[in-house]
Every structure is written in structure tokens, then in C-alpha cells.
Specification:
The structure is a single chain. The relative contact order is 0.16. 76% of the residues lie in helices and 1% in strands. By secondary structure, the protein is mostly helical. Helix 3 runs antiparallel to helix 11 and helix 5 runs antiparallel to helix 11. It has a two-stranded antiparallel ribbon. The chain is globular and about 75 Å long.
Amino acid sequence: MNAVTNFLTSSAMRWLLLGLAIVYPFVAPGEYQIYVMAMAFVWAIAVYGMNIITGYCGQLNLAHGGFFAIGAYTVAILTVDHAWLFWPAFMAAGVAGAVFGLVVGLISLRLKEHYFAIFTLCVGFIIYILIEKWGALTHGTLGIINIAPPEGFGVFDFARTLDFYYLVLGFLVVAVWLTRRISESLLGRTFRAIRISDDLAASLGINLMRNKVLAFVLSTIYAALAGALYAGVVRFIGPAEADILHTFDMIAYLLVGGIGTLMGPIVGTLIITWATQWLQSFEEYRMIIFGPMLVLLVIFFPKGIVGSFLAWRARRAARRATVPARSSPVSTARSTPRASEGRDHA
């Protein structure tokens, strides 16, 4: 049992998951399933951004869907109205996400807890209204069609579903890798100290405003780039892309997978995406089934699937360290978990 739990939180498990993702198109029943998985990867990238600001730094950003839409509209406007190629527009989307994130972060992060959440909720609504009403720039309720797909190279044509799947998978791998580097760095520990307590972090000499703004900007860059990829695959967007419901969807992905964990965003996104697909046969009754399932999951696994597993593993390791301590001080030293086990996380 111990070997199994150690494997599930090891780097080997992450390599195994990557291998499964690579071979998935060859075992998928059809192109539609590949498309659904590619879209799940796109949303997972955005959820990793939400995990940085909400999971690691403890700031609930309810405008995350709006920044996703900013990235999508940046690519759409530049490629359709100004004849840009996709990749320059893609980089511009990241810059737009960073600039808007910096402006909103500098203003909103002066507030705390519920006030910050309410402020960002209003920002999300303002983004939605601007997209819907500013027709001269965003085409209003008509939306933008014929968005250019990513330009391919060599034998790769990203207008094809299979090629786009591997492109998005590559970006997801980079997102997970970058998130892990942030989580294990001094910056990640700084974010977690802020999440625990502002006063505690300030007493340690941490600049609260600077680090919160940095976490906010990183999260909006993730969201904007995910939105840019989304625009490149659906090739039609409208004001609905900025709907607050997308933010709540991403919160659900994060809660189910495990907020503040490395693998929680991808686990939660894949589970809910495919559960939604399987429940489509129930038509309008699917939310009646899906809603209680989500509530029960949150009640019995408040830390999410990955978070609950890590908590169970920590309790189990603590019990194993405590029992020998009562019988022999020498055996206690030998049975104490290795320091490297504490660094492994999922």
C-alpha cells in the first residue's frame, strides 16, 4: 500500500499520465472525443491560473472568466479585423492579460476577502458588458467569426483536431511545469504564507501588495493564453465567453480536483468535463443529477479529490510515525518519513 501511495504522488505518475495523454488519440472512439479532450486541456490551463491566485495565494478572483474572454477577443480582433497571424496575436493576448491584470490587481487587491471577491465579480460583469455593448471593437452580440487557427509548420496543421490536440497538450505540460516550479520556489512559499494570514506574512517581512499583484498577473496571463487557444480552435466567439458562469465552472473544476494542489486542476477539469458529456443523454435533467453529485463531493471531500488523498496520506504517515515512538525511541528515528517524501506532492 505504501508503495502505491508513493507512486501516485511521484514524478513517475506524472510521466505516466503524460504518456496516456499522448496515446489517447489512438484509442479514442472518434474525432469528437479528441476535440472534447483538447477543450478540457484548454480549460485546465485557465484553471491552473486560478489555482495560483486562489489556491496558493488565497484570493478568490471572480473575474477569471473575463480575463479568459480578453485573451480570446484579443486574438479574434487582431486576426479577423487587422489580419494578424495567430502567433503574434497569441503573444499579444498574453500581454493584454498581463496589462489588464496589473491594472485590476493594483486596484482590487487593496481590498480583502469578501470585498475583493465582490469587486472582482463586478469587474467580470463590466468586461462582459463592454464586450456586448462595444460593437465597434468587439462586434457586439454578433460575435466574431472566421478566427484564424494557429499556423502550422512542417507536417503539422493545427486546423486539424489531432494536431491541435497535441499543441494544447504541449501548452498544458508547460503550464503544469511552470506551476510546479512556482509552487516549490520561495515565491510559492510566499504565496502560501499570504494565504494562511496576511498579518503572519507581513510579520515575516513579506511585501503583501507586491506578491498579491504578482500572483494576480500570473493568473490572468494563464487565463488570457487559454482564451487565445480557445478562440483558435472554436473559431467563433461571442459575449457568452465572458459570462460569469465560466468563472463558476472553473471554481467547480478547482474544488473537485483539489484547490492549492498541483494536479487538482487537471483532475477536476477532466472529471467534470467528461461527466457533463456522459450526462448529456439526460438532456435538461442532467443538472438535477450533476448538481447533487457535486454537492456530495464537496461535503465529503472538502479538499477535493487530490487534496483529500494528500491529507489521508499525511495522516497515515503520522500514525506510522507515532506507533513506533510509543514502543521504541530508536525505531522512531528509523520510521520517520524521509524529508524527500514531504517534498513530493500531487
